[in-house]
Amino acid sequence: MWKPIQLEDLDRIVECDLADCSDDERSYFASVAITPERWQQSPWGDEGGGFWVVAVAGNRALWSNDIEEGFNVSRFTERGTIPRSEYWCNQDPLRRALAGLKRQSLEA
After folding, report:
1. Which of 53, 55, 83, 107 could form a disulfide with 32 if both were Cys (CB 3.0 to 4.6 A apart)?
2. What are phi and psi of 38, to 5 degrees?
3. Phi, psi values for residue 65, rounded to 5°
4. What gap in Å lies between CA 5 and CA 10, rounded to an integer?
5. How many CA atoms lie within 13 A of 90 on its CB side?
6. 71: three-class secondary structure by DSSP
7. 90: which DSSP letter?
8. CA-CA distances (angstroms) from residue 23 to 5, 27, 78, 100?
């Protein structure tokens, strides 16, 4: 049975994934990282109380989809909410999602 990821477990995953990143990637992450926040996302995030967002760049959030065990990047209009249309079920490691966040932020 699925249980929502706890902050301590998320922190470990982020730390491990950052260890696989280049210095430039870690530097970029440090520039956009936030103290992890649970953001609402209905309906998929309802059961777990939302999803953890670990970085924000402009109107994009990098978040952990712990149902799918991966990271995603989504646009948002209201901080604290991942819109239904921006729900993704990627199973990307942080490094790949971080590259997507950087690319999308530059395109915006």
Report:
1. 55
2. -80, 125
3. -95, 95
4. 7
5. 18
6. strand
7. -
8. 27, 6, 31, 17
Residue with tokens 């239904």: 84
Cα–Cα distance, 62 to 72 (Å, whole number): 6
pLDDT digits (tens, 9 = 90+) for 34-61: 999 999 999 999 999 999 999 999 999 9
Residue 83 clears pLDDT 70, i.e. is over it: yes
Token pair recorded at residue 97:
């999602």
For helices 23-32 and 7-19, what crossing angle results, to 10°?
150
pLDDT range class, residue 108, cuts 50, 70, 90: low
- Residue boundaries of the structural domains of the chain: 7-107
Torsion angles phi and psi, residue 10, rounded to 5? -60, -45
